[in-house]
Amino acid sequence: MTKAIQQSVTFPASARELFETYVDSRKHTASTGMPAKISRKVGGKFSGFGGMIGGRNLMLVPGQMIVQAWRSAAWKKTDANSILTITFTDTKSGGRVDLVHVNVPAHDHRGVTEGWKKYYWKPWRAYFRKQKKES
Q1: Which of these, 112, 122, 101, lies nearest to 31 by C-alpha position?
Q2: Fold of 5-134
Q3: Which residues does residue 37 pair with via DSSP β-bridges, in sequence order?
Q4: What pLDDT, in 10s, does the model give residues 66-76?
Q5: Mind telling me which Gene3D superfamilies this protein's record contains (predicted)?
Q6: Which residues 6+ apart lie within 8 Å of 97 measured at CB?
Q7: 3-class DSSP state for residue 127?
Q8: What is the DSSP string of 4-21?
Q9: What pLDDT is recorded for position 131?
Q10: pLDDT tens sequence across 29-51
Q11: What residue ranges do the domains of the chain occupy?
């Protein structure tokens, strides 16, 4: 079993805005720059980055938490799904995302760890900066 990936990141957006950016297909696509389709239902499927990642929603607490069975298209068929838990909380200056990602296969652990930073948090920073300027 690999070590859990744990990351906490703050943004100039409320917890609800952060949650909506993840679960709204249009906002997810706009914030990452890559095609995404996200169901808002427990048991519903999701895909991101043009199908490079996908899985299904295990639990949704609107505005607060997402739990997903998550996998990369690059993983071996024999690799089990990983479990992704993201919580969203308000802070004095916006909101915080706390991510815990477990059961990521050893052969892609570093890639997924860095991928959250490169493909989500960095583009989200630019996305929310732009949103703030436009409002």
Answers
A1: 122
A2: Alpha-D-Glucose-1,6-Bisphosphate; Chain A, domain 4 (3.30.530)
A3: 47
A4: 999 999 999 99
A5: 3.30.530.20
A6: 7, 8, 9, 10, 11, 18, 86, 87, 88, 121
A7: helix
A8: PEEEEEEESS-HHHHHHH
A9: 85
A10: 999 999 999 999 999 999 999 99
A11: 5-134
Decide if 93 contacts 14 (C-beta within 8 A): no
For helices 15-23 and 25-32, what crossing angle results, to 10°? 90
Amino acid present at 37: K
CB of 19 within 8 A of CB of 111? Answer: no
Q: Which candidate, 78, 80, 79, 56, places its Cα nearest to that of 68?
A: 56
What type of residue sits at position 88?
A: F
What one-character-per-residue DSSP string does 41-99 give?
STT-EEEEGGGTEEEEEEEEETTTEEEEEEEETTS-TTSPPEEEEEEEEEETTEEEEEE
Can you tell me the distance from the alpha carbon of 135 to that of 130, in angstroms, rounded to the nearest whole number?
9
Token pair in block for residue 123: 């583009």
What residue type is 64 in one-letter code? Q
